[in-house]
Amino acid sequence: MKPAGAVLLALTLWAARPAGLLPLDEAGYRAALARQRGKVVLVDFWATWCDPCREELPVLAGLEKKLRARGFVLITVSADEPEQEGAAADLLRKTGVRPPAYIKRVKDNEAFINFIDHRWSGALPALFLYDREGRQTASFVGETAPAEIEAAVGRLL
Amino acid sequence: MRKALWGATLLLAAAAFGQEFKVGSKVSDFTVFDLKGRPAAFSSLRGATTVVIFIATQCPVSNAYNERMNAVYRDYSAKGVKFVFLNANSTEPPAEVEEHARTHGFLFPVYKDQGNTVADRFGASVTPETFVITADGVIQYHGYIDDSQNPARIQKQGLRSALDAVLASRPVATAETKAFGCTIKRKKATT
Fold first, then answer.
1. Does CATH place domain A18-156 in 3.40.30.10?
2. Measured between beta carbons, which residues in chain A are less than 8 angstroms from residue B58?
């Protein structure tokens, strides 16, 4: 195989790989938000075992695609066990969810939940909305109407 | 404005479901239904120490605890603790709950919480979610069974630690933990 062909093959394989999920803890969460400063950020906590989460993913991917140019970012955080990481990455890819995509890896789950929001029970799906300054302005826990999410995002854009 | 938005959008258990029973508060009587549809008063099912556990048939997290629920039931029934296992999901009819219990070899009966009225009063939001109630009717523990869906990664016991404390007449060291699992599929509001 010619060098150019090998490079092309390598690039093709790289592009076809399942999107990796980055491990996330409290410090990582803070950093992930800081990297998006200046944008409106919606963080989606989800899991492969959560039916409403799976149903919501394509809706959120669509919202991200629609509002990306206006400064909207979707961050996903899988709450799956390590054994489900591959399935979680596959599902994100199939539903068209773009990075940044994380998987929760914390020492103390309760401490992490309280760190995100002490009012949150940890139930999924859970969405946390941040304005361009990184301030949390709203949250949605459980099944939520897409129009309600879009309206809250729209108010910040 | 921000607070208003929170209030409007949060479906967190307490506020959204009109939670009446909290840790430290007294539980008044309520009605559950056996899988034949017959009503049963909590007062007829309870004991000196009672555990109420919300479970599901289709939730992988709840199902991950099936064996552990059997074990905790077996271990603590022997110590006089009574258990009320409740399915509050509107999407899981009694026949399905019965089949699920048989398939998984549950040692305990499962009751239906029709219209999720009991889940609302407890402010239960996920499955599995547990409550420990003492002889005086006061909730002494609310939260998870343990802190990991995968038994190999358990670091903290919630329910067992609480029961051990209550049975030894000691205060429960951690009276509230964050229960995790699938959201309870509540009856859709009719307008």
1. yes
2. 51
